[in-house]
Amino acid sequence: MKHIKQIIIALLILWVNLTAHAQSSDSLIVAQLRSKGITFSHDNSITLLTNGQRKFDDMFSAIQQAKSTVHLEYFNFRNDSITRKLISILGQKVKEGVKVRALFDGFGNSSNNMPLKEKHIKAIREMGIEIKEFNPVKFPWIDDIFNRDHRKIVIIDGKIAYTGGMNVADYYIKGTEVVGGWYDMHCRIDGSEVNTLQKIFLKMWKKVTHQNIHSTEFWRAKKADYFQGLRPDTTATAYHKMVGIINREPHISNDIIRYFYVNAINDAKDSIKLINPYFTLSHKLIKAIKNAAKRGVKVQIMLSTKSDVPLTPDCGFYNAHKFMKAGCEVYMFTKGFHHTKIIMVDGKFCTVGSANLNSRSLRWDYEENAVIIDKNTTKELDTLFENYKKDSFLLTPKSWKEWRTPSQRHLGWWAHLLAPFL
Fold this sequence. Notes:
This protein has 422 residues and is α/β, with parallel strands linked by helices. Helices cover 41% and strands 22% of the residues. It has helices at 2-22, 25-34, 52-64, 81-95, 106-111, 118-126, 171-174, 193-209, 256-267, 283-294, 312-325, 359-364, 375-388, 397-403, 406-417, and strands at 40-49, 69-74, 99-105, 130-134, 153-156, 160-164, 181-183, 186-190, 241-248, 271-275, 298-304, 329-333, 336-338, 342-345, 349-353, 367-373, 392-394. Strands 4-3-2-5-6-8-1-9-16-15-14-10-11-12-17 form a 15-stranded mixed β-sheet, sandwiched between helices. A two-stranded parallel sheet has the order 7-13. β11 (298-304), α11 (312-325) and β12 (329-333) form a beta-alpha-beta unit.
């Protein structure tokens, strides 16, 4: 009897494994995320905004057409020309009767090289814009290292929303002297997932202000048909895309973004394309990527040779070298700094959002990503990846030694030991 039970258990395990193997990666990731409480809707349009100029042109145009509310949640608003333009537009909308609420992170503001100072915030409030600071930096600063609000969300009239990797800063258009061009992306969502993003904003607004605000104007009930001149979703699946929002909140959904990435990589059958700026990675992610390459998945990773921070990229380069030796194709982007955070799996699904693949994003910060289960949007990102290869070199044993000096390679080894803190 004991042997029969063992045989039955073995057959059940085999059946489960065969069933999982037979399932497509997109159906697997949807089932996995639903098991974590993530909901999906099927009526969404996704417009990719693949550089800073496109993002700000499109978003500013939409804000200028707002009728009731504009809600903004950003890691930081840099005190530069693009923020001043945004504040000017928002101030005009307040005069027209539009309610404007904005959130920014205390550490995010303090840590950028052109922060909003008290006098700037006071002037903004005098325009009628409700702007609030999450987790202001205070002595002894220990709490400021963790639990930052790193999200980038804008919701207009509860009808359309923007999310992605860009804060509000002019270097997304102009670049910087240190890194040159600054590459990143956002997307505009029109569909039921606007409501999910609105819920995220309102919850954070309540956390910061203790105001529990409600209004029917906050919620999308039908297609937003009065916004004109915005970039269209030109794919065949416009307004029929399956989208879910994964929202990381400390102590509530700690592992959701890490869970998504690990499972997305483990689910892959054919291909993975990945761009992420701070490639320090957890042990689980490293193992998942290596296993994907080992089972024959074509894994393509893109990192930048330039960065806006010290040490963190050295850890990423160390990981890149290990992945190259494990059979992954690693492309080193040389034209500027790639701050983009995307993954495309099997040409079937992708994500666009705020989360990096470092310990801060995956273990500490408030983050949010849109998971898009759609071949057309995924193909758009795949094409973008292929175009970026033109400004990259393929990492090989030869190019690795030519690019990284012995001392730089040694620094990378030390940096990888600090990965849990980078």
